[in-house]
Automatic annotation (TrEMBL):
GO molecular function: flavin adenine dinucleotide binding; RNA binding; tRNA dihydrouridine synthase activity
UniProtKB keywords: Flavoprotein, FMN, NADP, Oxidoreductase, tRNA processing
Entry keyword annotation includes Flavoprotein: yes
Source organism per UniProt: Bifidobacterium bifidum
InterPro entries named in the record: Aldolase_TIM, DUS-like_FMN-bd, DusB-like, tRNA-dHydroUridine_Synthase_C, tRNA_hU_synthase_CS
Name by which UniProt lists this protein: tRNA dihydrouridine synthase DusB
Start and end residues of each DUS-like FMN-binding domain: 50-354
Entry-linked PROSITE patterns: UPF0034
Length: 413
């Protein structure tokens, strides 16, 4: 194929690098209640979603979150459509679900409508999932420079065709389809309102809006008012996403926007018990989970054992996967750099157990990181797009030829 020539656009003046998390519940406001949401045949009693996160939301982490949380949706990390069609072993591993998972939610990503349709057909024919989400929200350059993720809704013909094809395949099996979107590429190239209407017209059961642009990446604070705008414009449920670091943030998002549900991303990294806090908050309870370091170590070990099962008994792969989670689990605890480095050098379960046993189990969860931002907080940045991407809202024949060619990166992990 012809390599895609890249275009880079600068961040516009609206982008912000001011981090202003909402962590305190406003006084004197009415209690928030959440009504159940039905996505086709799927009844979601408490519409709280674990957002798919690459390298994070495989089934061991989903199981931990679901054990703490309400009967919501716990979505598998993004599956590349071409990789699934190519039967890539990692893609197939990521499609696995634990027997305890009540609803099997799987997210697909792709740019070529025919390939995404093929992937959806595999999901249906092989009974891989009960719910399919489509990724139009990823801001990562290696995705957007191919016209994918949050860049794709700019091309309304491509966006519509992908949804049409997937909904047609999935509706035959009574599998609901939803879409994850962002506000736009930047504030001069917003797409969320048109994308929401197209998703609704083409049969999506719901839309999740991450209230940032691609250019804003994960920096600053998401603009929840855009979620409220979409709620007012659509008839299908809208889930809000962005900067829910604690249960009070979830309550406030619903108050501010009227969204049908909330989607939790980085806020639960190293804190699967956040879902228990949110469950309690929506039930009107002030009870929150404040684990000691000993309790956190118990979660680390359970996570480690589940990962060993996920990797078919390979402890080394499991523990290497666990390392990033350990950094999140220990965030804010006074454990020292030497201890953190020792965890990063672990190679098997015995190593992890040895290091956890050295920690003081009585240390309480640090107040200074409670309900505060988690994961990488990256600020506004340049956006990488296929050359000429912004020239038109529809794809040209030449653009499709370039985009849909064989891309080895798209078939592997």
């Amino acid at each position: 194929m012809t390599d895609t020539v890249e275009q880079i656009i600068a961040v516009d003046a609206h982008e912000t690098d001011v981090l202003d998390p909402r962590t305190d519940a406003p006084a004197g406001k009415e209690p928030v209640t959440m009504a159940p949401v039905d996505l086709g045949p799927i009844h979601v009693p408490t519409p709280v979603v674990l957002s798919p996160m690459a390298g994070v939301t495989n089934w061991p982490f989903r199981v931990l979150c679901e054990e703490y949380g309400p009967d919501g949706l716990y979505v598998a990390e993004m599956i590349t459509a071409r990789a699934l069609v190519a039967r890539n072993p990692k893609a197939l591993r990521l499609c696995r679900f634990a027997p305890s998972e009540r609803i099997r939610s799987l997210q697909l990503y792709g740019v070529n409508p025919a390939i995404v349709e093929q992937a959806a057909r595999i999901v249906v024919d092989e009974d891989m999932a009960d719910h399919v989400d489509l990724n139009f929200g990823c801001p990562v350059p290696k995705v957007t420079r191919r016209g994918g993720g949050s860049a794709l809704p700019w091309k309304t013909d491509l966006f519509r065709e992908i949804i049409q094809r997937v909904v047609k395949v999935c509706s035959a099996a009574n599998i609901p389809v939803t879409a994850k979107i962002r506000v736009g590429i930047d504030h001069s190239h917003e797409t969320f309102m048109e994308a929401g209407h197209i998703a609704q017209e083409e049969g999506c059961a719901a839309v999740t809006l991450h209230a940032r642009t691609t250019a804003e990446y994960y920096g600053g604070h998401s603009d929840w008012s855009r979620i409220g705008e979409l709620v007012g414009a659509l008839d299908i449920p809208v889930f809000g996403n962005g900067d829910i670091w604690g249960a009070d943030d979830a309550l406030e998002m619903v108050r501010e926007t009227g969204c049908a549900g909330v989607a939790i991303g980085r806020g639960c990294q190293g804190r699967p018990w956040l879902f228990a806090d949110i469950r309690n908050a929506f039930a009107g309870s002030d009870e929150r989970v404040n684990p000691t370091l000993g309790a956190v170590c118990d979660v680390i070990m359970r996570h480690a054992r589940l990962l060993v099962e996920f990797y078919d008994g390979d402890e080394r792969m499991a523990v290497h996967d666990l390392r990033k989670h350990i950094a999140w689990y220990l965030k804010g605890f006074p454990v020292g750099g030497t201890t953190r480095r020792a965890f990063m050098e672990c190679e098997n379960l015995a190593d992890v157990e040895r290091e956890t046993s050295r920690l003081d189990p009585a240390i309480t969860f640090p107040e200074r990181v409670k309900d505060k931002p988690r994961g990488r907080v990256r600020f506004a940045k340049k956006v990488h797009l296929p050359y000429g991407w912004l020239d038109s809202r529809v794809t040209t024949h030449e653009e499709r030829e370039t985009l849909f060619g064989d891309d080895p990166m798209d078939a592997g992990y």
